[in-house]
Amino acid sequence: MSAGWPGSLEAGYTSSVTLHVNGERYELTLDNRAALLDVLREPLGLTGSKKGCDHGQCGACTVLVDGRRVNSCLLLAVALDGARVTTVEGLGEGDRLHPVQRAFLERDAFQCGYCTPGQLCSAVGVLEEAACGHPSAATDPGHPPREPVPLTGDEIRERLSGNLCRCGAYPNIVDAVRDLS
After folding, report:
1. For the CA atoms of the chain, what is the radius of gyration?
2. E runs forming strands in the chain
3. Which one, of 69, 79, 44, 49, lies nearest residue 61 by Cα?
4. What is the mean pLDDT of residues 123-143?
5. Which terminus of the chain, N or C, has fewer Cβ atoms within 10 Å?
6. pLDDT for 161-171, tens place per residue?
7. Going by DSSP bridges, is the β-strand pair 14-21/24-31 parallel, antiparallel, or unpaired?
8. Helix or strand or coil: residue 3?
9. Per-residue pLDDT at 12 exceeds 90
10. How far is residue 140's CA from residue 130's CA, in Å, rounded to a whole number?
11. Which pTM value belongs to this model?
12. Using an 8 Å Cβ cutoff, are 84 and 65 in contact?
């Protein structure tokens, strides 16, 4: 598969890249300028990740790369050769929802749904970060290093602050993440 701008797939402007997306291996020839978000949406057809601002400010494009949450609109896909990418489509297994997806449903933590894929991937990352003891700006400075960080409302809001919701579903999103901590 190849991805790029029309007329740009010429020698010197492309690179061969292997990505492992949602457990599947893809060998791609990509335009060197292609953002991960565009590669996920166009040649791979994974349209769950949304293009919001294209500047890394809204979080609608959040995915997990090697287990860490990232804004896929800001990453050049060619820099991720060999990386493992998880999109919202890869969170659950078959018809079985990921616990974060179930919590969002139970707490009605969405309205229009545009930001939801990014919110879900970010929440998965937040839970892992806190469990591994990674502090945030809201973490008590006296918290023991490398100990799991309790996910209080303030902690969750700080950690999810890079994911915007124009509908205002924040209270329910915070409750859904708190249910899993």
Report:
1. 17
2. 2-3, 14-21, 24-31, 62-65, 68-71, 84-86
3. 49
4. 97
5. N
6. 999 999 989 99
7. antiparallel
8. strand
9. no
10. 13
11. 0.91
12. yes
